[in-house]
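This section describes the prediction task in plain terms. A model, or a person checking by hand, is given the sequence of a single protein chain and must write out its three-dimensional structure as a string of tokens. No templates, partner chains or ligands are provided. The sample shown here is typical of the held-out split.
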Amino acid sequence: MLNRVVKFERYGQSEVLNINEEKVQDDLDENEVLIKMSSYAINRANVLFREGNYLMEASFPSRIGSEGVGIVEQKGAGVSNVNIGDRVNLLPPSNESEKGYFADYNVVENSRLLPTAKAFDDYEASTSWVPFLTVYNKFVEEQQVKKDEWVIIGAASSSVSLAAMAVSKHLGAKTIGLTRSNAKVESLLALGYDKVVVTEDKNTLEQIKKITKIGASFAFDPVGGEGIDDIVNSLQAGSQLCIFGVISASTPLPIFSMMNTSVNISCYTIYELFMDEKRLNEAVEYFLPLFEQRKLIPTFDKNVFELQDVQKAFEYMESNAQVGKVLLKR
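The expected answer:
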């Protein structure tokens, strides 16, 4: 049985991605399962990994892919938490270069599996866990988001930001989405943001102050860059700005604004949660019932690409034209 596997042999733009055909691994260790994939989600982290700008380095030839959903085809003798035929989600691999998920079939340790909400179709399921688990620490554990207070969310059309908006609304907070241009404003308001601020208008601070009157109580931003100075000054004294991504090439630290406002800046990566099994299980227990009741629903872009069109899918995501997660289908 042949397996199409997306690989790249050097860092670069989307054209470095190629599809190789390999034999499916059929000798499983006792704690491994063979997953026939259904749908995959492309994350900004995959772009950074492909470019050589991520936390982990690639070993060439390298696989790629960190999020998806599929069906259990085979399982090792020691696997008891899933059965053949079960639909499951995949946690990001511990080594994306060796175990990246953009392939027809994947051999995965059973510890990397998460339950799939029965209420979700494959597209929704493929991008359900990573966005919501990313917001869990700040929004649920630390309770930075409070009822009736304003939350600033950067890159408002990204999947994690849309998950942050949905959780904020679930908790009773009010949301301000930041977007670069007017092109997505109507879509973002329709998805649930209370207000949308266009950052290219160069009056972000003025707009947020006009909306909130006293400032927002928390900000969650994957962009960074020079715009964080406006975000810091838009927050109430002593509040927190959490940066969870590096879309901008560089981010100067706004020291004087931090001194004047007593705003703290923190950084976060989802891998911190993956290293703590107890907290990860608590996060799953928190979100899964909300998924099943469709009180929280992941957002994906209307353009879904075939696995063979992986280059086009990356190019589309990097154009920033999407709203929600860009998906691949098998």
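For orientation: The chain has two domains: 2-128+298-329, 130-271.
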